[in-house]
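Hey, I'm writing a tutorial for new members on how sequence and structure tokens pair up, and I'd like a real worked example in the thread rather than a made-up one. If someone can provide the structure for the chain below, I'll link this post from the tutorial.
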Amino acid sequence: MGKIKTTAQILTIIMILVNNLPFELYGLPVTTFLLWFSVTISFVSGLSYFLQSREVLFKTK
């Protein structure tokens, strides 16, 4: 999931820097979609890491 997340974040940054061209000419909010996709993937990835490490984080001695 890390490579998908990184690719989505890079594409989002590129689209923001080029002001959503050429999709802006057709009224397509591709940047908004990519931004929410990146946020969702990042959240799911973080949640996955947290759930995998919760035994170590909350281990009682």
